[in-house]
Amino acid sequence: MLKEHTVFTMAALRILSGLLEVGAALIILRFNKIETALRVNGVLAVIGPTILLLGITLGVMGLSDRLPLGRMLMIYAGVFLIFWGTRRL
């Protein structure tokens, strides 16, 4: 049994993300059209970062009582830099 509820929730988000990815791949294969594949990938482009942010937010909130403010800010700055660095790919 998992010790912390936060860890369980973060793992559940990752499982959900993986299931969505597999489902999207099956949809792409089923329709076998480039247009559909692009649309499905567009939807995943929104869902993926959202799940990433939720997972990081849950983790930082779970550590907030043990993590100094400066380190929390560094984590959020790192996430911001990931999104900023990949914004025009």
Could you characterize what this model shows?
With 89 residues, this protein is an all-alpha fold. It has one domain (5-85). Helices cover 83% and strands 0% of the residues. It has 3 helices and no strands. The chain has helices at residues 5-31, 34-63, 69-85. α1 (5-31) runs antiparallel to α2 (34-63) and α2 (34-63) packs antiparallel against α3. The protein is elongated and about 50 Å long. The mean pLDDT is 90. This is DUF2619 domain-containing protein. The chain crosses the membrane at residues 12-31, 43-63, 69-86. Keywords: Membrane, Transmembrane, Transmembrane helix. It holds the Pfam family DUF2619. InterPro entries: Uncharacterised_YqhV.
Quaternary structure type? single chain
Number of strands: 0
The backbone outline, from C-alpha atoms, is elongated
Query: Helices and strands, in N-to-C order?
Result: HHH
Mean pLDDT across every amino acid position: 90
Counting helices, strands and paired strands, the structural category is: mainly alpha
**Proportion of β residues?**
under 5%
Helix content percent band: over 70%
Poorly predicted sequence stretches spanning 5 or more consecutive residues: none
Number of helices: 3
Number of domains: 1
The Rg value, from CA coordinates, equals 16 Å
Question: Largest sheet, described in full?
Answer: none
The rounded distance between the terminal residues' Cα atoms is 41 Å
